[in-house]
Amino acid sequence: MEARFAANARNARDVSQRRSRPWRERVGAVTTTFVLPEKGPLTMPDDFAQIPTAWIKDADHARGLLAAYLTPGLFTGSLWDPAIERRLEPAARDLIDVEDLYSPTLLSAPIRRSAGQAIIERKDEISEHLRGIDPEITLWHTNSVKVNAALDCANELVARLEAIDHIGWTKASKLVAAKRPKLIPIWDKQVSRALGADKMSWHQYWAAWRRSLTPVVVDDLRELAVGVGHPNLSPLRTIDIIIWMDEWGWKDLPTPHWDELREACPSRHTQ
């Protein structure tokens, strides 16, 4: 018993010492070049267990899920996209400021006050990393060199954000995705579990998404977004919403919307 208490005390002391070190020292040298494999058939070990295109084979059903999510007043996440769109203007796109700290809350990942303060204190360094991520580069861009360079910077930024107390991978991904929504996928436990990706590192997750986003898939996702009146919705966000709704969100739909969804695809949604 005494030995266990002594071990716990040592662990607590180690954590305290680690948290008291400067930010750069805590995260270490996160400078490994991020290299993604070229696009190809989804047969590599790090690919998703469930191919994302499975959720858009039935276009009508996917469109119904997307439209329900984006209906005003049903899900707070529907406010995330217009909120971040205002922050993608040149004056704000390379900055994580007070206004940006609220965006993860709309996706059920609120930022604690102490974590928000730590981010604001480091906003100059964060902006330096964001400036290294070309805002015009998408995850499905054909130039792998440019994609790898952008993801290399994003990789370091996510690691540095994640090192802040109470900012894990989920919140870090949502903060960075808000600034580069066409490049960085949101990490959500429901979506990652549905894809069989909940044990992946973010390197594997990003790489698997890149291989999944073929030109045909990107065009299909854009068409779905246009079909529900949201042409500015990025393909990454579109498929994220569809998977989340199909796996989880439909349970919270009010009766009229749920009845329509059940009638559209009765075998997939039952209560």
Outline the fold blueprint:
Layout: H1 2-20, H2 23-27, H3 59-70, H4 80-86, H5 98-101, H6 113-121, H7 123-131, H8 144-162, H9 169-179, H10 189-195, H11 202-212, H12 215-227, H13 235-247, H14 255-264
Helix pairs in contact: 3-13, 8-9, 12-13
Descriptive keywords:
271 residues; mainly alpha; 14 helices; globular
Short summary:
The protein has 271 residues and is mainly alpha-helical.
What's the total number of strands?
0
Going by helix content, strand content and strand pairing, the class is mainly alpha
Supply the number of structural domains: 1
- Helical run tally: 14
Q: Assembly type of the shown chains? A: single chain
Q: Quote the average pLDDT.
A: 81
Helix proportion: 40-55%
**Which percent band covers the strand fraction?**
under 5%
Gross morphology is globular
Euclidean distance between termini CA atoms: 48 Å
In the predicted model, the low-confidence regions spanning at least 5 consecutive residues are 1-45
Over all CA atoms, what is the radius of gyration?
20 Å
Sheet with the most strands? none
Order of helices and strands: HHHHHHHHHHHHHH
Task: Give a verbal description of the structure.
- The chain has one domain.
- The chain is 55% helix and 0% strand.
- The protein is built from 14 helices and no strands.
- Helix 8 packs across helix 9 and helix 12 (215-227) crosses helix 13 (235-247).
- The longest helix has 19 residues, at 2-20.
- The radius of gyration is 20 Å and the shape is globular.
